[in-house]
UniProtKB/TrEMBL annotation:
Pfam families membership: Nitrate_red_del
The UniProt record lists the keyword Chaperone: yes
UniProt entry keywords in alphabetical sequence: Chaperone
Top-rank taxon: Bacteria
Gene3D superfamilies attached to this UniProt entry: TorD-like
UniProt-listed PANTHER family: CHAPERONE PROTEIN YCDY, DIMETHYL SULFOXIDE REDUCTASE CHAPERONE-RELATED
InterPro entries, sorted: DMSO/NO3_reduct_chaperone, TorD-like_sf, TorD/DmsD_chaperones
Protein name as annotated: Chaperone TorD involved in molybdoenzyme TorA maturation
Organism field: Polynucleobacter victoriensis
């Protein structure tokens, strides 16, 4: 996606916005991990990070903290080649992936179906377009996480606001995220990415709860 989705999350210093920065950062990290296997630099940065939830304004959720700690542990004990091999086996495969990362698949059982058409219409309304160098369809979980990241931390407040976050999350993500996490966590070949699936599940549960609080 364009509109500066690849830039660093804007620093927000006003009271009460630190949690949104943490949310945007985590969406950004999940986008990176689902788009491609992490390199050694990213693994080192994850391994060296503090426990999620240690900040005063971070979401207070035990499951999310435990899932983050597990990802830190896995990142500390692995290397980029191991992650690359697993990514290839799970999400690319030979002929077709073992685990699909596309929303249309979980909503209809097929790729490039009506949910993708509705998603493209929604992205057009938001003024977002697929970047030319991106080959994955817009319903790839990495692309959707990038959109949520922008809706949280973007500088255009007519688009980057809580109302749009809830609308996008509810209409294009909520219904199938659990199925995606189940597919990852339950796959016998998932080792490193099992930790990513667990983190995604815990985070999306927090997000779902938060969206339910929005009127």
């Amino acid at each position: 996606m364009d509109k500066n989705l690849d830039k660093e999350v804007t620093e927000l210093s006003s009271d009460g916005l630190e949690e949104d920065v943490a949310r945007a950062d985590l969406y950004g990290l999940l986008a990176q991990l689902f788009y491609k296997a992490p390199d050694d630099d990213l693994l080192h940065r994850i391994a060296a990070s503090a426990a999620y939830g240690s900040g005063a304004d971070a979401p207070d959720n035990a499951a999310l903290t435990q899932a983050w700690d597990q990802l830190v542990k896995v990142s500390s004990a692995s290397n980029a080649q191991e992650w690359a091999n697993e990514y290839q086996e799970l999400f690319i495969g030979i002929g077709k992936p073992e685990v699909f990362l596309y929303g249309s698949y979980y909503q209809t059982g097929f790729l490039n179906e009506k949910p993708l058409v509705r998603l493209r219409d929604a992205l057009q309304e938001l003024g977002l377009e697929a970047a030319e160098n991106i080959t994955e369809s817009e319903d790839h979980i990495a692309s959707l996480c990038e959109v949520m990241r922008y809706l949280i931390a973007g500088d255009d407040l007519s688009i980057a606001n809580l109302t749009q976050q809830k609308k996008f999350f509810d209409e294009h993500m909520r219904s199938w995220l659990v199925d995606l996490c189940d597919a990852i966590e339950n796959h016998p070949s998932a080792n490193h990415y099992k930790a990513v699936g667990s983190l995604a599940r815990a985070f999306f549960e927090v997000e779902s709860y938060g969206m339910d609080m929005v009127e």
